Methionine aminotransferase (Azomonas macrocytogenes), 389 residues
Amino acid sequence: MSVKPEAMIQSKLPNVGTTIFTTMSQLAAQSGAINLSQGFPDFDGPQALREAVGRHVMAGHNQYAPMTGLPALREQVAAKIARSYGRQVDMDSEVTITPGATEAIFCAVQALVRPGDEVIVLDPCYDSYEPSVELAGGRCVHVPLALPDFSIDWQRLADAVGPRTRLIMLNSPHNPSGALISRAELDQLAALIRGFDIYLIADEVYEHLVYDGVCHASVLAHEELYARAYVVSSFGKTYHVTGWKTGYVVAPPLLSAELRKAHQFVTFCGITPLQWALADYMAAYPEHVDELPAFYQAKRDLFCDRLAESRFTFTRAAGTYFQLADYSAIRPDLDDVAMAEWLTREHGVACIPISVFYQQPPADLRLVRFCFAKREETLRQAADRLYGV
Ligand code: PMP
Ligand code: GLN
């Protein structure tokens, strides 16, 4: 046959290439740079958690978990939600364990979005949202967040809502900006979509990474919004084990039932010994989540205190483990992709350009993202290098 295989495939995702996280992590490795690009800790999760995995593997917990997730883990998730947000969710009909938040988001989109539907995303937005929507036959309507604080532009959001709007994607704490959506903004959103047949996916994977004494305003704590929402989280972020790709999604029973129809044919279930280990650890150390803000705020401040002496300018991240920095005073001639490459190759610190999270980036955007989920010595060394730029 003379036709090349690639010529026969009409891609359903023609605009998708290699993600910026893979690209920058590879460039960091090639350049021998400190990798503050892709978001993952350079330290391990708790020892007791890691040991529990070995124990459960040896105890023979190696076959399929239930499709909805191990009951012991769903019970812990429900208990944590009650403690953190005051909501009693039913672990059987409202909590689903998934192999990563990414799969939860994908399945929630498949459950809701039909061909021709519109999904509102707030730019800059996480890279998995749009391909998930496109594979479901939907179309993303991009509404930029307002600069400089990445807050919701209510006028533009209201203008984007229409008869085809099926879903709005929220992300708080927000990757890449670190911005938070407040309770008052959730109320405003509820008022905006009241009376419309619009659903929400609330991507709250950084729910426990919120600083300066502020409380995360979860959709789980919002009666009216939760009634039409999928709330997604990730054990990877909360327990410093991103490679475990284990997350969960909480939604009212009818929404959960629809999501599970997709989930059971995407992966069927999450990884059994990891779920056992997480259930044990959450039961033994419920305080882990309460200690996270101080743990990461110390890292943020260590990095930022030194960066403040450099020519980068910034406002400290309110949440997530990402710090944005403006480099206008250093290389205004470079766009952010070129700047990220230059910093990686020439100064040995890899970061993420944020224009890639936009459909149409603002022309004068001069911001890059640094991940501060790193050991103190890594942060000190990176900040020293950035001070010299
Ligand atoms: N949403 C956001 C905003 C993220 O930053 C990430 C990062 N990994 C995910 C979802 C995916 O989480 P997971 O690794 O659990 O699939
Ligand atoms: N969420 C991570 C980040 O924002 C990346 C995850 C991935 O590489 N897919 O850096």
Remarks:
- The first helix runs from residue 5 to 8.
- The chain has two domains: 5-45+289-387, 52-284.
